[in-house]
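Key idea: predict the complex, not the pieces.
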Amino acid sequence: MLAFILRRIMQSVVVLFVMSLIVFSMINLVGDPVDMLVNPESLPEEIDRVRRDFGLDQPAYVQYWKFLTGALSGDLGNSFIFGRPALALMAERFPATLELATTALVIAVTVGLPLGVYAGLRPNGWGARIIMGGSVLGISVPTFWLGLMMIIVFSVILGWLPVSGRGETAVFFGIESSLFTVDGLKHIILPATNLALFKIAMVIRLTRAGTEEVMAQDYIKFARAKGLSSKRIVRAHLLPNILIPIITVLGIEFGTLIAFATVTESIFAWPGLGKLVIDAIVNLDRPIVVAYLLFVVALFLVLNLVVDIIYAVLDPRVRLQGEEG
Amino acid sequence: MNPTKLLSIQGLRTEFPTPDGPLAAVNGVNLEIARGDVLGIVGESGSGKTVLGLSIMGLVDQPGRVTAGRITFDGTDVTNYSEAQWQGLRGNKVAMIFQDPTTSLNPVQRIGAQMIEAIQAHRDISSDAARQIVREAMVRVGINSPDERLEAYPHQFSGGMRQRVVIATALLNAPDLIIADEPTTALDVTVQAQILRDMRRLCRDTGTALIWISHDLGVVAQIAHRVAVMYAGRIVEQGATEEMLKSPSHPYTVGLMASMPANTPRGQRLASIPGGLPQLSNLPKGCSFAPRCTHATEACEILPDLCFTSANHAVRCVSPLHERGQHATGD
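Result:
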């Protein structure tokens, strides 16, 4: 296990390095950030000074070298706009995004899993047809449109929930989160549900497929031949077997929730990473964009590792490479 | 009702609906089995022998179901049992063993847990007590150091070992009847012989009746007191094993025996029955075997009943072979 983790970490460093190279060269091809930073009416000397101050007058490889040496000591550069370290800005926004992504994931699993199992157990029933039809909608209706509709219905017409923003936060066991206040919960319901809809549909489809596959297995028939109740068969034999692929997919999906919640965060003005990076892209705030992309890569590397470890724990047949077999 | 009969099946019909109308995988089967009896059911793939076994367990997969006939177990009519009533019977009074031991066990659960749950489904006893019963059952089927084995997962066992685990599981609640659906087919020949010997011994020791389903007449001959041959959902010949092997009467049984490797001289091609099973959706009007039968006549267009030719031998054929003085192994 340890050897496996160590090898994975070494691979991760290589991946991160290559990614930084790609991201850095790509971003140098897009626009000139100085245009965004200075008043268009400024004198040429003024513009040159700004360019020098940010080190943008130097050749790209020198800029990259400076970035790389900085990155190794944990400094991913300062935001052009805010003038503060990119990492610090991201760290400020990260809890809000994490909270939103986690809530969405919990909703997706608690709603999707039971519905998927139900649809898989009675694949030809009316319930299953309604569930599967709903899941097609969940997958095909665009997130931004649904988000807007939810705001119109629940906030504007019914007036039950706030339109946007993150509510009050409270500290509980040393964690600051809006999940611990009523106001915060009210604020998170809409964006989290919006973000979860696609994932609910996905979890339903995965669970349904897994359930149908596992229920046809001989060990389910043998379990029935032992005289076990349906409840026991679902809990002891069905769920442990379908959870293996579901957890694998959800691990990666959790990454996409954190990394690509940008649309939902923009619609609901959720002060998370997604909003930060969208603003940074618009303003050509290179250090933030680079730091964000590297963060996303690192996030997926970690999630993949965690999923592999969970996989090995859940499935006794799986041996991680490098483990004594 | 004859009190010595453990299981009695009358006119059993199990159908699967299809767009072209229902298919009867089991088509009017009558069977009786006494306590401690070993009945072999022989037939080729698709003859309905597995569905017959599942029907007795109330385990026919939806949308298939038993549409006619009666199953009486230990004096009680179980044909219309609810799912909850079946659950009380399955694994308790009647147990079933399936063909492929590599897929009969849940891959992500420990062997011990899978066996203990079979006991706790029917008896209100502590896990420790159940564990003790499991341990003894494992020793009985020849698994050494059971404590270690209980903590193992199925993939750590060989095929033969897994089938022993399955058999031990079936025996846990001392059932009156075990239905074994080709339990040795997936195993290699030496293991097959061991399992066969063990099953025979275990059933004799515990007085458990056994229905042994197989496509292999040779295997059935080694274990069964009586044999029933199935073809296209019907029993075509039934009788005491020795008598039937000595003088098989139905042309299909004769064909089966002729195609056994043991009955074929070395170096000679194995005999085979020309043609294949008829489609259940398109059964011939009379005898289902008539299209493949070399002895078929016009008389075969009316379905014959299963008629006794001696006290222990019944055959469904208008002109049973041995009555015409033909040799069992054919020529």
